[in-house]
Amino acid sequence: LPRANQFWYKYTYMEEMLGNIAAARQIFERWMEWEPEEQAWFSYIKMELRYKEVPRARQIYERFVMVHPEVKNWIRYARFEQHHGSIPSSRDVYARAMDFFGDDNLDEQLFVSFARFEEQQKEYERSRVIYKYALDRLPKENSQEIFKYFSQFEKRFGDRRGIESIVVSKRRFQYEEEVKANPSNYDAWFDLLRLVEEDDDLDAIRDVYERAIANVPPSPEKRHWRRYIYLWVYYALFEELVAKDPERTRQVYRTCLQYIPHKKFTFAKIWLMFAEFEIRQRDIAAARRILGNAVGRCPKDKLFHGYIELELQLREFDRCRTLYGKFLEFAPTNCTSWVKFAELESLLGDSDRARGIYELAVDQPLLDMPEVLWKAYIDFEVSQDEKDNARKLYDRMLQRTQHVKVWLSLARFETAESVTRARDVYRRAEKALRSAEGDVEERVLILEKWKEFEDEQGDESSRADVAKRLPKKIKKRRAVTLEDGTQGGWEEFHTYIFPEDEDSAPNLKLLQMAHLWKKQQDD
User: Fold this and answer.
1) How many CA atoms lie within 13 A of 467 on its CB side?
2) pLDDT tens digit string along 346-373?
3) Does residue 382 have a pLDDT over 90?
4) 107-129 burial: b if 16+ Cβ within 10 Å, else e
5) Long-range contacts for 191-196 (Cβ within 8 Å, ≥24 apart)?
6) 68: helix, coil or strand?
7) What is the pLDDT of residue 163?
8) Residue 198: phi, psi to the nearest 5?
9) Any idea what DSSP says for residue 493?
10) Which position among 170, 266, 321, 424 has the lowest Cβ density within 10 Å, counted as fewest Cβ atoms?
11) Parallel, antiparallel, or unpaired: how do β-strands 487-497 and 472-481 relate?
């Protein structure tokens, strides 16, 4: 019955009770030849320890860890040696266990036990080396306990730098897991890169950048590329400012531009940064080639502005004129570009050319911000002391629009020149807005500004003239219709009654008298 463990237990127990230790030992040896379960070995070891036979127990442990080579049994063997005061032997058992399992089968618990053993012996440097060795060798997902015990160890025996190193390692593990789960999580890549850059290991930093930029967005929509493109931006800045490698920086920019689908969209920031980099390398021709290629392949407002700004800094004004011409061919509705072109000519002292540009601009059939353009044109004529030209421009504007802001601007302009002219502008504005039957609020605004003007500049007669034009503010009620078409009750609102409206409303005076009578009754 070689596999009947209960038989062997009783047999060895009987011989030990009879005091026949040699026979009990012989029975155990016969049993061990069958390589029984772990508990049988422990029983044999305990018997030897009961009779202080430590060397024999050690020999049994040596055979035991070969028959049952689990990590927990090696740890028991090492603790046995430690318990019996043989520290070098215990250390040797741990070292043999690591050699036995090799790099492919290392276990977290073995490292933790070994490190804590060295910590108990006050061998703190040894313990630290074991923890770091484990973190470098073990997969991140199998090293949570190592992180926990290493953190506790550094808090007790380490310095601030060691503690920070542990925290950084743990955070790096978290970010690695995030990018592994979702390679398109660019925010996690940014966090990982910030951690890696703190180590000043150029090759490791480059490796992370290369891994990050390999995750090209699958969608050709620009909104999916906005975060991704900043990986290239930071990569290029790292190569230029940290690694100080101009050739690699240049290659990063070129590769980035190859990835971008310029026929669908582009990133002006990359083109401009590439050109600015070449300028810092004192290669103006290369910068011009880059920007020329950019505006030729994928023209954008920002690219034109950047190219023009470069030529302005280089004082190449003829090139600026050429670029503005191409820009306005590409975007003739862009009022800001027209204004800047004209301002450039004005700064160069060519007023006729600036005036010609403004004229071309205001004659465009479609403009994105015409009010900005007209204001700039008028300010230009005023700066040239051409007040009559400015008045003509205001008249041309009023032929196109009767907006209240235009009238107010003209009134302010005339106020600085002539009170009579300004008063005439207010009178014309009030008449035009009244005949246009547009927004009542605009007409009220003109009258209020006119009244303020007369309070400052006018006399009694002019003030009276404005006062008789001012409307009365009254409160009315109207029915409220809900979204489903049903009646939602009544709401109050304010409106204005002008003097000419009172003459056309015979019931208004009767209504006013009724309100007056009611008020007298309440009093």
Assistant:
1) 8
2) 888 888 888 898 888 888 888 888 888 8
3) no
4) bbebbbbbbbbbbeeebeebbbe
5) 193/234, 195/168, 195/171, 196/172
6) coil
7) 52
8) -70, -20
9) E
10) 424
11) antiparallel
Residue 10 has φ and ψ, to the nearest 5°, of -70, -35
- Tokens 């009542």 sit at which residue? 440
Q: Looking up tokens 């669908």, which residue turns up?
A: 264
The tokens for 435 are 């005949």
pLDDT at residue 240 in the model: 92
Q: CA–CA separation, 387 vs 447, rounded Å? A: 25
Q: What is the pLDDT of residue 515?
A: 62
DSSP labels, 429-487: HHHHHHHHT--HHHHHHHHHHHHHHHHHH--HHHHHHHHTT--EEEEEEEEEE-TTS-E
Residues 44, 70: Cα–Cα separation, whole Å: 19
Task: Enter the tokens of residue 5.
Answer: 């463990």
Question: CA-CA distance, 219 to 221, in Å (whole number)?
Answer: 5
Taking the C-alpha atoms of residue 299 and residue 84, their distance in angstroms, rounded to an integer, is: 82
Q: Is residue 451 a contact partner of residue 469, using CB atoms and an 8 Å limit?
A: no
Half-sphere exposure for 327 (CA within 13 Å, toward CB): 26
Backbone phi and psi for residue 224, each to the nearest 5 degrees, phi listed first: -80, -15
Q: How far apart are CA 62 and CA 319, in angstroms?
A: 87
Averaged over 398-423, what is the pLDDT? 80
Contact by Cβ (8 Å): 335, 368: yes
Q: Which residue has the tokens 């980099």?
A: 277
Tell me the per-residue pLDDT of 472-506, one tens digit each, with 9 for 90 and over.
777 777 777 777 777 767 777 666 666 666 555 55
- Please answer whether residues 2 and 34 qualify as being in contact, where contact means their C-beta atoms are separated by less than 8 angstroms: yes
- Using the predicted structure, report yes or no on whether residue 167 has a pLDDT greater than 70: no
The two three-digit tokens of residue 79, written as one number: 């603790």
Mean pLDDT of 434-454: 74
Identify residue 241 by its one-letter amino acid code.
L
Give the position of tokens 């379960």: 37
Q: Cα separation of 339 and 357, whole Å?
A: 8
> Which percentage of the chain shows pLDDT scores above 90?
11
Q: CA–CA separation, 118 vs 78, rounded Å? A: 12
pLDDT digits (tens, 9 = 90+) for 31-65: 888 888 889 898 988 998 888 888 999 899 999 98
Cβ–Cβ < 8 Å for 306, 299:
no
Is 267 in a helix, a strand, or coil? coil
Sign of the dihedral defined by the CA atoms of residues 244, 248, 254, 258, in that order: negative
DSSP 509-520: HHHHHHHHHHHH
Question: How does residue 192 score in pLDDT terms, banded at 50, 70 and 90?
Answer: confident
d(CA 415, CA 402): 19
Let me know the angle formed at the C-alpha of 260 by 254 and 262, rounded to the nearest 5 degrees.
110
Say what the pLDDT of residue 65 is. 87
